[in-house]
Design goal:
570 residues; flat; alpha+beta; five-stranded antiparallel β-sheet; 12 strands
Length: 570
């Protein structure tokens, strides 16, 4: 395999960066009011040091608190670590009723949850929700080795995307700073450009100077053809996705980019997810962009309100020229001595009286705050944050906020398709790669495993179908009192399975189809045996009664003797 064409990769970076330019101004403006620490200007290393600097033009924290509430609400409602938020299901008629296969799936689920909990996934995912709510786009980078799993959220402005023909992110090029010491630790000194290795100033101060490093992950066109490729190749440079670390300038005469390391991935390790995206666009739009005018307005109102308060407390003064050089004592209780020639007139008077409609300003302020909270779905997610999670159920959530859940439903669908599904596929693949999966039963050969989501918000989305099942069963039960034959139309087995699936019940809590069939056969045999015993007992009782019932006068044969005699004469 030929070495990566780093010139082509760098020119692609420049082209994608040019396409991203219109979004940079939007992200920078959103970061200013909603999420100051989530944005970086690529190519300006000083921006990384100034990321946490105080923003002097922020007078109201409503936008910042709104995006935090949105992120915390999504964290608790979609990916809460305190309860299972996904489950694995089998597809295919043969494997669906196999208890051994279901137990395998349950074991895989449990191991996945343990791995995710032991990693930094839950720390990163909340930050990813803040990026989604603020910038409309989040990019998560995942690594997996023998030590475990690690996730990283990329700051907005530090990466570029490209998508495939159906709009899924399949190319990410990012930039980030590294010191000389970090470069040596990550890539080894021999991989660095010679000019850097020989620099005496760098050798003396390996931590003071930082360099911009680029990481590109993209499909290899000569490996992926028609969407088909073979995974688990030995040579990293023959894997479907190229992974190239490089620096902008190397040692060559034309200062072409210098490759630090080239390898590859079998599964794409970046997860690019958008809040909402228009057709033909790469980056997403966000609720923070929708209410950005309100965020600007409340800052201006608070700034003007603060100025008005200052003017009311310390207004501009008009003073006699005789006081020049002597000054005016403005300390409470202070005394300013004036000449008796003023004859009662004030030596110092306000230049003008500031009349400010404080109540009107506060009313306007509250209106804009309400618009921000509405756009950021604070009322919906505050419910998930404030409610006692031990008491509230998905059904109660839906009954309270059904209309609001519809507004967030498309975001949940996009999260599932762009983040969670690829993440769990990536996790399952790496668990197999590092021998972390249980032994799979033979029946699963050729079967498909799908992911279903059981978080509070996902269940709230499904609860409509659960309610329809409950209503139908209640209708059938009530109608059966009038016409029992109506129950012939109801498949209660399928109703029980569908109901449990929508509620996210673990497969191991349900009996397999074979177990159910065996129980029913045993019950039927027991019922038949009981009926036979009852029939024999009834016959014995009848015979006893006939044997004790005389026919004719006393001392003659019984009714049973007469019946037996009659049967013999036939």
């Amino acid at each position: 395999m030929a070495k990566a064409d780093v010139k082509f990769i760098y020119s692609r970076w420049l082209a994608l960066k040019e396409d991203r330019q219109e979004w940079m101004s939007k992200w920078e403006e959103v970061a200013k009011y909603f999420y100051p620490n989530g944005f970086r200007k690529e190519g300006i290393l000083g921006e990384w040091k100034k990321a946490h600097a105080q923003k002097p033009d922020i007078f109201d924290s409503t936008p910042i608190e709104a995006i935090k509430t949105l992120a915390s609400g999504m964290y608790g409602a979609i990916t809460s670590p305190s309860r299972p938020w996904f489950t694995l299901r089998l597809q295919g008629f043969e494997a669906e009723g196999n208890h051994e296969a279901k137990m395998y799936i349950d074991e895989v689920e449990e191991r996945m949850r343990v791995i995710l909990t032991g990693s930094n996934f839950y720390n990163v995912i909340r930050t990813a929700y803040m990026h989604l709510g603020g910038f409309g786009t989040a990019c998560v980078y995942a690594t997996f080795d023998m030590s475990g799993m690690h996730f990283e959220i990329l700051p907005a402005g530090s990466y570029v995307f490209d998508v495939d023909k159906i709009g899924n992110v399949d190319t990410v090029i990012r930039s980030f700073p590294m010191s000389m010491r970090q470069l040596q630790m990550e890539f080894g000194e021999e991989a660095l450009p010679e000019t850097m290795r020989m620099s005496e100033s760098i050798k003396k101060n390996p931590d003071t100077v930082r360099y911009t490093v680029y990481h590109a992950v993209m499909p290899r066109p000569d490996i992926i053809k028609n969407g088909k490729y073979q995974k688990q190749t030995i040579n990293a440079q023959e894997r479907p996705y190229a992974s190239v670390y490089f620096m902008q300038n190397g040692d060559s005469a034309n200062r072409s980019p210098h490759i630090l390391r080239e390898s590859g991935f079998d599964v794409f390790p970046y997860f690019g997810v958008r809040w909402d995206v228009n057709a033909g666009e790469v980056y997403g739009v966000s609720p923070a962009m929708d209410c950005l005018p309100d965020a600007k307005m409340i800052q201006n109102i608070n700034k003007n309100l603060l100025s008005a308060v200052h003017l009311a407390i310390k207004p501009p003064l008009l003073a006699s020229s005789e006081l020049q050089g002597r000054g005016v004592n403005l300390i409470p209780g202070g005394i300013t001595y004036i000449n008796s020639s003023y004859k009662g007139s004030q030596a110092v008077t306000p230049l003008y009286n500031a009349h400010f409609d404080y109540n009107g300003a506060m009313s306007m302020l509250e209106n804009h705050r309400a618009q921000i909270n509405k756009a950021m779905h604070v009322d919906l997610f505050r419910m998930f944050v404030d409610e006692d999670r031990r008491q509230i159920t998905a059904k109660e959530i839906t009954s309270k906020e059904e209309e609001k859940l519809v507004l967030i439903g498309h975001v949940l669908e996009r999260l599932q398709s762009e983040l969670f599904n690829p993440l769990i596929d990536w996790l399952y693949y790496n668990m197999g790669k590092y021998n972390m999966l249980p032994e799979a039963p033979e029946i699963l050969q050729g079967s498909t495993i799908k992911v279903e989501y059981t978080s509070a918000l996902a269940q709230a989305q499904k609860i409509a179908s659960v309610r329809s099942i409950e209503q139908f069963v209640a209708f059938a039960g009530n109608t059966a009192g009038i016409n029992p034959e109506i129950l012939d139309n109801v498949n209660f087995d399928k109703i029980a399975k569908r109901y449990s699936e929508n509620l996210g019940v673990e497969a191991g809590l349900l009996r397999s189809d074979n177990e159910v069939e065996q129980i029913r056969q045993q019950r039927q045999q027991e019922q038949q045996a009981m009926q036979s015993q009852q029939a024999m007992a009834s016959m014995a009782d009848t015979a006893n009664k006939l044997g004790n019932t005389p026919v004719g006068s006393e001392g003659q044969e019984s009714a049973l003797d007469a019946m037996i005699g009659g049967m013999g004469a036939m």
